[in-house]
Specification:
The longest helix has 25 residues. Strands 13-12-11-7-10-9-8-14 form an 8-stranded mixed β-sheet. By secondary structure, it is an alpha/beta fold.
Length: 374
């Protein structure tokens, strides 16, 4: 058994790799003085405040244009990054200075915007989910691949060092045969009125996200897609799904506020997924069980034990993990700027998550297991 199979060996190897990466980034940063010109296309998503803050803090980024059909939204968020308001998306896409577009519109606008941007040869950051349906998401993925542009989406859980550690251990077989996995992603959004109308502050009203006709999903799909991504990233494709979603408070009409799914993965593992907006707390976020190992993340602490990792054990949390990658938006900007090796989410991966979630909602409506279209 090699030293890298043990937890200590993993940490030593990952730490060395992280140091080398950091040194490379410092060198590239010293050499790169040109600004990357971007555009903000759609300002509707609840993550727009965070996205604009990230972009505004980068001296190597210029956000030239901002567009949104709502004048209050585009005025507010365009000003945060010093962007001019574009009269149309077409003007942005025709601008040769614009290298990439950040799409943070309502989900039901994604298809039109993504296809147009890909055709124009613009790099794409598209906030999750990629699309409303699996079919339209696959069409977008094909167009992005054909255009040969850089793409990623906002699956930020992939940057968590604890998740990266578990992915490494799954790949090395530290769990033996994985028998079950479970993931939870819950918050109190419905309880706290996060998606309520704000008549005096339209620019920070996210009510559309609780309207499945616009968002494509309710609470289960909104939060569940993040943990679904992690389960699929660790364990591979989903073959079929059985799910239940429901309304709890009724604050947002018939929009689902919580849900649970059983996922049959193609390699035989059964996983469960829980997500919603009506939980007072969310202490446990991930658990993996196998014939030779067990792990769980609870209160943001990772516990790991494996027969293949001497010295591991569930009594104490894992410590000293190397830092993870930057936020996906930062990775995308770095990739456009010429920094190689960024761990971008592929368009096919993004489309596969939409297809699996679509099957979950179909199962909730039909009351049966639903195969995931691929």
């Amino acid at each position: 058994m090699s030293d890298t199979t043990t937890r200590r060996g993993f940490l030593r190897a990952a730490g060395a790799a992280g140091a080398a990466l950091a040194a490379g980034e410092r060198l590239e940063g010293a050499q790169d003085t040109a600004k990357t010109t971007l555009a903000l296309v759609g300002c509707a998503h609840i993550h727009v405040p965070g996205f604009t803050k990230q972009l505004a803090e980068r001296p190597d980024v210029r956000v030239k244009w901002a567009w949104d059909p709502d004048p209050a939204r585009v005025a507010k968020w365009g000003a945060e990054v010093g962007a001019r308001t574009a009269p149309s998306v077409g003007e942005i896409l025709a601008d040769p200075e614009v290298k990439g577009v950040l799409i943070a519109s309502e989900t039901n606008r994604h298809r039109e915007l993504v296809l147009a941007a890909a055709k124009a040869g613009k790099h794409l950051f598209v906030e999750k989910p990629l699309g409303v349906t699996g079919a339209e998401s696959r069409a977008m993925a094909e167009a992005i691949e054909k255009a040969g542009v850089l793409f990623t989406t906002g699956y930020f859980m992939r940057t968590d060092p604890k998740v990266l550690f578990l992915r490494e251990q799954v790949a090395k077989g530290a769990f033996g045969r994985v028998t079950h996995a479970a993931a939870w992603n819950c918050h109190s959004g419905s309880l706290g009125g996060w998606f309520d109308e704000k008549p005096g502050n339209v620019a920070e009203t996210w009510r559309w996200m609780a309207d499945p006709k616009i968002a494509g999903v309710g609470a289960f799909g909104d939060l569940g897609t993040h943990s679904l991504d992690i389960l699929m990233w660790l364990l591979g494709p989903v073959e079929s799904v059985s799910a239940e979603v429901r309304v709890v408070t009724g604050r947002y009409g018939d929009c689902d506020e919580t849900g649970t799914a059983m996922l049959k993965m193609k390699d035989g593992v059964v996983a469960t997924l829980v997500a919603g907006w009506v939980d007072a707390a969310n202490p446990v976020t991930l658990q993996i069980a196998g014939t030779e190992g067990h792990a769980l993340i609870v209160r943001d602490q990772l516990y790991f034990e494996s027969k293949k990792a001497p010295g591991s054990g569930l009594a104490e949390p894992v410590k000293g993990l190397p830092p993870g990658p930057k936020h996906p938006l930062q990775q995308w900007v770095d990739a456009i700027g010429g920094r190689p090796g960024q761990p971008l989410v592929t368009p096919r991966e993004a489309a596969a998550r939409v297809a699996a979630m679509e099957a979950a909602y179909e199962s909730a409506r039909s009351g049966r297991f639903v195969s995931v279209a691929g």
